[in-house]
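Quick one, tokens below. Sequence please?
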């Protein structure tokens, strides 16, 4: 498999983005690593410094199942689609690189190469400030109702805009559930899945979202 770096969509769509060109594989391999922001069951988020000096987040798989399922590639696909359609009005997507692994995907090997962007798949996106730093802060339903009372008009506007963008995203209608099964629950209803970014309040974690083609 050859190294691949994402290129943007049509010239027409690029005109309104006011974005730097997407990072290529060489640039992603050479990103300065600041530290690991956090790790979930399947992937890790790593703070990096872009060539421009801006800080961003690199996403990497930390398990074989994540790699085999294309877990973060699916997330990147949704981010790219949103970027092509809405430019800077959504989470900024800075690029991706897909390079074959040079080992047999054993757990120790994956862990040892987690910070080696020269192997495996990496995508880079905007870094924001989480609404809540962790899942243990709001412990009850009453806590969540109290927290919601503090949303500003601008916050509510941003949440409505996210819903509109996802529902009308050309080529990939984004459903905020992991599958089309209505009985399956999603964590996208929780504040922990949202961040304050350059453009305002944004949905940050696509684990429990899926794309429906037009």
């Amino acid at each position: 498999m050859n190294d691949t770096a994402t290129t943007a969509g049509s010239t027409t769509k690029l005109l309104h983005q006011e974005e730097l060109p997407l990072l290529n594989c060489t640039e992603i391999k050479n990103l300065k690593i600041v530290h690991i922001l956090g790790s979930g069951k399947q992937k890790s988020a790593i703070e990096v410094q872009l060539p421009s000096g801006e800080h961003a987040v690199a996403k990497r798989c930390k398990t074989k199942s994540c790699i085999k399922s294309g877990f973060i590639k699916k997330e990147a696909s949704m981010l790219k689609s949103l970027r092509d359609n809405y430019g800077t009005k959504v989470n900024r997507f800075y690029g991706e690189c897909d390079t074959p692994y040079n080992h047999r995907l054993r757990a120790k090997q994956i862990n040892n190469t987690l910070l080696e962007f020269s192997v495996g798949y990496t995508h880079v996106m905007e870094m924001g400030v989480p609404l809540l730093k962790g899942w243990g802060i709001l412990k009850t339903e009453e806590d969540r109702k109290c927290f919601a009372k503090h949303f500003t008009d601008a916050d509510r506007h941003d949440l409505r805009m996210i819903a509109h963008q996802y529902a009308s995203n050309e080529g990939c209608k984004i459903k905020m559930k992991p599958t089309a099964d209505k009985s399956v629950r999603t964590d996208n209803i929780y504040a922990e899945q949202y961040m304050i970014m350059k453009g305002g309040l944004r949905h940050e974690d696509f684990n429990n979202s899926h794309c429906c083609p037009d």
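DSSP finds seven helices and eleven strands in the chain. The two ends are 29 Å apart (CA to CA).
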